[in-house]
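Quick check before the chapter quiz. The format below is the same one you will see on the exam, so make sure you can read both the input and the output lines.
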Amino acid sequence: MCISAASANKKPPLRPVNLNTATALELQQVPGIGPSTADKILKMRKSYGPFKNVGDLRAIKGIGPKRMGKNAKVHYGRAGSAQKK
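Here is the expected output.
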């Protein structure tokens, strides 16, 4: 999957993004996550329910070990708990 120069230069969000509550726009704040990948994450969440852990993202085509290694611990927050705003 190609990442455009604009998304490759994105700064990480100030706060972790919660996979189970984030909107498509919130997911797109994470470097390497564009509209297409955000849509896949939302569709998977709708079909299978809440993510139990960040590793669940590996089931989504286009999210592999390289992307997970760069973003999983820093930008996704805890998948199993909702964050209050």
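If your answer matched, good. Residues 1-7 have pLDDT under 50 and may be disordered.
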